[in-house]
Amino acid sequence: MTQPIRPPCFDGFDLAAFWADSDYARREYTEPPPTPQAIAAVEAELGYRLPASYVALMQRQNGGTPINRCFPTGQPTSWAEDHVAISAFKGIGFQKQWSLCGGLGSRFKIEEWEYPDIGVYFGDCPSAGHDMIALDYRACGPAGEPAVVHVDQEGDYRITPLAPDFETFVRGLVHESAYEDDPEDVKRDALVHVRAAPFNTRLQKLCDQWPDPRMPSAIRRLAEAIVEDKGYFALHADARSHLMYAAQFLLLSHSRPVRSMEGFLQSYPGVIAMVGSAHFGTGGWAPAFVEDWFQARITASELVQADGGWRFSPNFSAALLRQLLDGDLASA
């Protein structure tokens, strides 16, 4: 059956000024401009026809971080009393893990994180997966014009309507300065935190047990690089977050054997995540990111079983220590 022609979109709207220039976004989100074949393949995989306005936006830049990241709401969410925040738009494609059909794309949120199957999850939020922005096809059907909603995992997957369509959502985004401190202030405060906040007792003890006294400064240096990338301190599924997961595994496995992935996940909170705000840490964490990291290391034979537990292979451990202790973060 012939598909209806997608109507023109964003008349009078400056798409060139929509996207923020970000090394992190280019590395983790942005795909080549979508071809008609790629669009059709993504739609077939997802089971929904993407809005014409979504396609138009992605033809300008296929995934990334917007300059304006806040959308007003008439009711409170887990993020704020009067707005939600979007940290990135997923590109139309399969290549990048954050793309609509990437490894951490829309279906991943439904199948692994148990988000309600209402449509397409296109907008990542600063909460590391604990809330999402979605195209909601419940009222219009899979070939219709979906509404845009906020889905709040922290509120038992509560759904908050945002806009009647995607173009209205994009046009309604406002800068963070309308609600909170300037992003540069947030980044500056985060840098002060990772450089100077004291380690909690557990992290300090693990560092004291490590044979090389450079480990504390290495952890701070890596955290600083993460803040420079993102503008805040949070761990997701990017290369430098993976390096921080590996640093924590090194410390924990040196202190006692790591018998299983489940044991590592139980030990993980309280080292850097889920510590008091007065101490060095990210505040929250997303277990699925850590699980995926652990499984990927096993698949790559970088985590191996030895002496009744899991250890890094000698080659991986040596390369990891070079990155951490010698400050070689350019490749991460």
UniProtKB/TrEMBL annotation:
SUPFAM superfamilies named in the record:
SMI1/KNR4-like (SSF160631)
Q: Specify the Knr4/Smi1-like domain's residue ranges.
A: 33-172
> One Pfam annotation, family name?
SUKH_6
The protein depicted here goes by the name: SMI1/KNR4 family protein
